[in-house]
Design goal:
Helix content of chain B: over 70%
Number of helices of chain B: 14
CATH architecture of the largest domain in chain A: 3-Layer(aba) Sandwich
Radius of gyration of chain A: 23 Å
Strand content of chain B: under 5%
Structural class of chain B: mainly alpha
Largest sheet of chain B: none
Oligomer: heterodimer
CATH topology of the largest domain in chain A: Rossmann fold
Largest interface: A-B, 33 and 26 residues
Number of strands of chain A: 14
Number of helices of chain A: 16
Number of strands of chain B: 0
Structural class of chain A: alpha/beta
CATH topology of chain B: MetI-like fold
Helix content of chain A: 25-40%
Chain lengths: ~350, ~300
């Protein structure tokens, strides 16, 4: 698995003299110190993320954590103070204005939290926007965009204006617009946050469905942990402009790096989220009912108890036995992990 | 004590010399460049005369038909069209047809001139804060300085006639379109603009595809204001030789002809109302896409 996007040593300081303030940041000034003593806002500090090809990378954080700032560095809507963003081996931050436009037109597309549709253009024209910017004639662009309008379930609304649609439908237009350019990278900035819960789940389904088929490299920003766990192949958690933990979602739940993250994950439904592979012990032979490795432990426990067994066999996608799951371990995993007294309490 | 009761003004002689100096140098300037400026404005004069002749010489039913058609194209409202036709018939019946045509001609040319200068200027202002802070005070001066004051240099330069009248009208009428174009573009939703950026739109694509279309309601309000203000200048412009409805009003003032003043004044008002309603209605139709914006 190769890395599509490599973000390294990325810093962003907002203020009058960012490069001057960088000296203080390098010396280790905290966000608060920088603001109080030097009047600059630290947006991002030393961000390093390698985003693998064809996967969904979730960047999660609460408001003010810098996640929207971070995603805007990938297509350089925001200029960094320092650092590198390498996409397919090319540093986006070194691109000329022309190269950057070409990059934005063909390599990536973006979906916005507040949809950001063109209010004076119809659904069809909006979906075709990226293509018309590329210089494709409106007729052809609309034809090509039609497929995506249908795909997101907006067939029949082509001639409506955005203001005539509900929020969920508007975001479908936003999604169709982003997909229509066939860009390999999809940047989604809190794309579903403005939608109500049912519609949000709907949109997540659409996205996962599309991803099954398209295998794009998706960077997905959210503040919603359930959403992050649901769609993320990998998750990076951001706090005050710094990455606190990143990796496999299962890993984050089973081994939270600090109290901040423990607090973060304390309210999730562990039975539904934790998968069998996280609690199994590796083994090449085992007895009991067969469970696939991605079964949630809630379901696994039910299967074990209805089979009347204390343990089961874990198999991978090909049906090969890879481990053994014990009921006790599964039950322990359901309980919240003890707070590690060694790590400092958050706040 | 004298210092406090008498303002310490500059010497009378100095003041006279200062004024004389300004006058002399401007006279020098107008002697040197007046002809050149006049020939520069020649095409404008030609266009204005042509339009005026066209309007006055054309058979009146055709003019009314064209005006009605324009009103219909602008507003798509039969009520407005009927009102417009009726107003023109009444104006003609009271013997003001020719003056109205002359006014119509100068208003049209002034508006076209203001739009073609004002919109690019507004776009330029929206693009750069420095340009904005340079142009804004100039617009303030243009709007507040008494029109008689700038009539003097204009007349000195170009004499009495249609072109100086046109320039006087434009000086007064151009600020709203510049301001509102600038404002409209600056008010365009930052998020929509960011989306255009994210899809790789260049400056032209953003300007013509996003900023101007979204600023159009404001730009249109500017056009409307410009038309209204140029109508308001008709009387003053007639003082320096512009024909039209302003001239009889001026005559009425100096001779105390109440009826004449009233009739021509009302004709100006009528024109203003027609222009205003039609252009506003057109501006409203431009925003058809906002319909349904209230629904959740």
């Amino acid at each position: 698995m190769t890395d599509k996007i490599k973000i390294s040593n990325l810093y962003k300081v907002f203020g009058k003299n960012p490069s001057g303030a960088m000296d203080h940041v390098r010396k280790g000034a905290s966000k608060q110190e920088l603001l109080d003593n030097h009047g600059h806002v630290l947006g991002l500090r030393d961000i390093n993320i390698d985003i693998p090809e064809r996967q969904i990378q979730v960047i999660m954080g609460l408001s003010g954590s810098g996640k929207s700032t971070l995603i805007r560095h990938i297509n350089r809507l925001i200029e960094p103070t320092e650092g590198q963003v390498v996409v397919d081996g090319v540093d986006v931050l070194q691109m000329s204005a022309y190269d950057l436009r070409e990059f934005r037109r063909h390599k990536q597309s973006m979906v916005f939290q507040k949809f950001a549709l063109l209010p004076h253009r119809t659904v069809a024209q909006n979906a075709a926007y990226g293509l018309t910017v590329q210089g494709i004639t409106e007729g052809e662009a609309k034809e090509r965009a039609q497929r995506w309008i249908d795909r997101v379930g907006l067939g029949g609304f082509e001639n409506h204006f955005p203001a005539q649609l509900s929020g969920g439908m508007q975001q479908r237009v936003g999604l169709a617009r982003a997909l229509a350019t066939d860009a390999e990278i999809l940047l989604m900035d809190e794309a579903f946050s403005a939608l109500d819960p049912l519609i949000r789940t709907d949109m997540q389904d659409i996205l996962l469905d599309l991803q099954e088929e398209l295998h794009k490299t998706i960077v997905f920003i959210t503040h919603d942990l359930d959403e992050a766990l649901r769609i993320g192949d990998r998750i990076s958690i951001l706090r005050d402009g710094e990455i606190v933990q990143q990796g496999d979602p299962q890993d984050i739940i089973m081994r939270p790096a600090d109290d901040y993250i423990s607090d973060f994950i304390k309210d999730i439904n562990r039975g539904r989220v934790i998968e069998v592979r996280s609690v199994m012990t590796a083994a090449s032979r085992a007895t009991g009912p067969k469970l696939t490795e991605d079964t949630p432990i809630e379901d696994a426990l039910q299967m074990l108890s209805s089979a009347g067994k204390d343990s089961g066999t874990v198999i991978d996608g090909d049906g090969k036995t890879i481990g053994k799951i014990e009921m006790n371990n599964a039950i322990t995993a359901m309980a919240r992990p003890e707070r590690d007294k060694g790590t400092p309490r958050y706040k | 004590m004298e210092f406090f009761t008498e303002f310490p003004e500059m010497g009378r002689q100095d003041l006279r010399d200062f004024k004389k100096g300004v006058d002399a140098s401007f006279r020098e300037f107008s002697r040197n460049y007046g002809d050149a400026l006049e020939s520069f404005f020649e095409p404008l004069l030609w266009f204005l005369v042509w339009l005026e002749k066209l309007l006055t010489n054309a058979p009146w039913p055709i003019v009314i038909a064209v005006v009605a058609a324009l009103a219909w194209l602008g507003s798509r409202s039969w009520k407005l069209v009927t009102g417009t036709v009726a107003a023109f018939l009444v104006i003609g019946y009271f013997g003001m047809w020719e003056d109205t045509m002359a006014t119509l001609a100068i208003i049209s040319v002034a508006t076209l001139l203001c739009i073609s200068l004002g919109i690019p200027l507004g776009i330029w202002m929206a693009k750069s804060n420095r340009v904005q802070s340079a142009i804004t005070p100039v617009l303030d001066i243009m709007q507040t300085i008494p029109s008689f004051v700038y009539l003097i240099p204009v007349v000195m330069l170009l004499g009495i006639g249609k072109v100086p009248g046109l320039i006087a009208v434009c000086i007064y009428a151009i600020p709203p379109i510049v301001r509102l174009t600038n404002l409209g573009i600056r008010l365009v939703d930052k998020e929509v603009l960011e989306a255009a950026d994210a899809f790789g739109a260049d400056y032209r694509q953003k300007l013509f595809g996003v900023q101007i279309p979204l600023a159009l309601p404001n730009i249109f309000a500017g056009v409307n204001q410009t038309i209204m203000m140029s109508l308001a200048m008709v009387v003053i412009a007639s003082m320096i030789g512009v024909k039209g409805l302003g001239l009889p009003v001026l005559r009425a003032i100096s001779n105390q002809y109440l009826a004449l003043g009233l009739l021509n004044g009302l004709a100006i008002v009528t024109l203003a109302i027609i222009f205003d309603r039609v252009s506003q209605e057109y501006g409203r139709r431009l925003q058809a896409h906002r319909q349904g914006a209230d629904h959740d």
